[in-house]
């Protein structure tokens, strides 16, 4: 008997909206992206380890996925609420051993104070094969459809803060 996806819990995680001095957002191209126009770009994100706090996870995940050392970042804001996304049915059984329906994430807006040379996506366990700075308004169109509502919520909450950071 298969479990109804609505009965499955969410995996706890975090996401990071990292902005540079121009207000552009770091996005990475997932290493497992398919070619032919089906590239998957996303902001850094990942699951929380047992006993880990969201802020701690955000710094760890950012460094693990981008190679950016913590001293090149500053947390500007934390999402007011935990945000969720559900995986499509065909992915639920493949990811996380089918234990979760999706993720429940705390998001962080961070300022990047380093230079592009401080980014290195060729990490020990790479998740991205490429990266770029993206205008926040262009993010939803580059993200896989099932994460678009979550990204829209993150942008809506953080965009006024990003605008405040611009010269």
CATH topology tier name: Nucleoside Triphosphate Pyrophosphohydrolase
CATH architectural name: Alpha-Beta Complex
Count of strand segments: 8
Q: Give the CATH superfamily.
A: Nucleoside Triphosphate Pyrophosphohydrolase
How many separate structural domains?
1
Protein structure class? alpha+beta
Largest sheet: 5 strands, mixed
Order of helices and strands: EEEEHEEHEEHH
Number of helices: 4
Low-confidence stretches: none
| Beta-strand content estimate | 25-35%
Mean pLDDT: 91
Radius of gyration: 16 Å
Report, as a whole number of angstroms, the end-to-end distance.
58 Å
- What is the CATH class name? Alpha Beta
Share in helix: 10-25%
Shape: globular
Key descriptive features of the protein:
single chain; 167 residues; alpha+beta; Nucleoside Triphosphate Pyrophosphohydrolase; 5-stranded mixed beta sheet; 3-stranded antiparallel beta sheet; 4 helices; 8 strands; 23% helix; globular
Q: Could you characterize what this model shows?
A:
This protein is of the alpha+beta class and 167 residues long. It contains four helices and eight strands, in the order ββββαββαββαα. The strands form two sheets. Strands 1, 4, 5, 6 and 7 form a five-stranded mixed beta sheet that branches. A three-stranded antiparallel beta sheet has the order 3-2-8, with no helix packed on it. The longest helix has 18 residues, at 148-165. The mean pLDDT is 91.
Give the secondary structure arrangement, pairings included.
Elements: E1 10-19, E2 25-30, E3 41-42, E4 45-47, H1 54-66, E5 73-78, E6 83-86, H2 89-92, E7 102-112, E8 128-134, H3 139-142, H4 148-165
Parallel strand pairs: 1-7
Antiparallel strand pairs: 1-4, 2-3, 2-8, 5-7, 6-7
């Amino acid at each position: 008997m298969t479990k109804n996806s609505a009965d499955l819990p969410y995996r706890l995680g975090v996401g990071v909206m990292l902005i540079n001095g121009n207000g552009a957002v770091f996005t990475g191209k997932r290493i497992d992206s398919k070619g032919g126009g089906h590239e998957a770009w996303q902001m850094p994100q990942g699951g929380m380890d047992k006993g880990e706090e969201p802020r701690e996870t955000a710094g760890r995940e950012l460094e693990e996925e981008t190679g950016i050392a913590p001293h090149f970042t500053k947390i500007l804001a934390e999402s007011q609420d935990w945000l969720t996304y559900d995986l499509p049915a065909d992915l639920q059984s493949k990811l996380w051993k089918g234990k979760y329906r999706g993720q429940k994430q705390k998001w962080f807006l961070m300022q990047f104070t380093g230079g592009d040379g401080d980014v290195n996506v060729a990490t020990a366990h790479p998740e991205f094969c490429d990266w770029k700075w993206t205008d926040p308004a262009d993010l939803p169109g580059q993200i896989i459809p099932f994460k678009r509502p979550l990204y829209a919520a993150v942008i809506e909450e953080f965009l006024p803060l990003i605008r405040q950071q611009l010269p």
